[in-house]
Specification:
binds ligand LHQ, 6-stranded mixed beta sheet, 2 domains, 2-enoyl-CoA Hydratase, Chain A, domain 1, Lyase 2-enoyl-coa Hydratase, Chain  A, domain 2, 4-stranded mixed beta sheet
Amino acid sequence: MSQSDTVLSALGDGVLRLTLNRPDKLNAFNEEMHLALRAGFERAHSDDRVRAVLLTGAGRGFSAGQDLGDRDPRKGGAPDLGHTIETFYNPLLRLIRGLEKPVVCAVNGVAAGAGANIAFACDITLAARSARFIQAFAKIGLVPDSGGTWSLPRLIGEARAKALALTGEPLDAETAANWGLIWRVVDDPALVDETFALAARLAAGPTKGLGLTKRAIQAAATHSLDEQLDLERDLQREAGLSADYAEGVAAFLEKRKPEFKGR
Ligand code: LHQ
């Protein structure tokens, strides 16, 4: 696992808290931070003690997207941004979406460019009331990445997606929640506690079933109803064989609190 301090990593109550940590650059992504974040999500995949992930940022921003100083065309000619996407951003997006454990995102401040679209790729995203979301790509001649052209129209429809992406106008957290881009807005001082409590509650839940639920909902985007009904049948069969289902039913019938293990 990466030892870089560009992402702080802490495991407690089944929650792996990953904190983007380049606050003087508003947590803009350089290669070191990418590799550290990837290592964090890879750990979340492989470590059974991790039952949920909480992603947030240090300082006053969540993430300002790509560190533009690292991809400056004035230094050594035009960089191959496709290579950057293929090497760093796309693997990260696939890790977040493919992780069959809940990923909660706490947007503590501005989320711009890839920073915004990474927040939208998480399973449950909450934002501080002061946060804002900016499709900053439009201001520097780029195209939304990190799944933005996929998630934005799905979450808010083509009209709003195009307006945000073409103008690069900031969207306040309250409107983002009202439009369905994120789950909820929280007063700034409560963000850390509220998101951790949510992540810990999920981590103590039947995370095997939650992971299958995530897979099913994500698959719906490319499925017909018939395909989705078949998938629900298959995943319900798998969930029904889990120890957590047995525990959940037993606890209900015995009128006690369940103790889920994520298996
Ligand atoms: C930054 C950045 C930054 C470096 C703030 N880089 N230093 C993928 C593949 C490959 C290449 C290209 O891109 C992509 C995906 C993308 O993410 S493209 C979009 C890249 N991001 C942006 O264009 C956003 C640029 N940043 C901003 O527009 C502003 O900083 C925002 C609106 C986010 C925040 O504004 P303020 O609150 O006024 O803060 P600030 O601008 O004063 O920034 C604070 C510091 O952070 C400052 O450094 P300094 O040394 O002057 O204090 C900025 O230079 C630095 N910073 N974003 N992306």
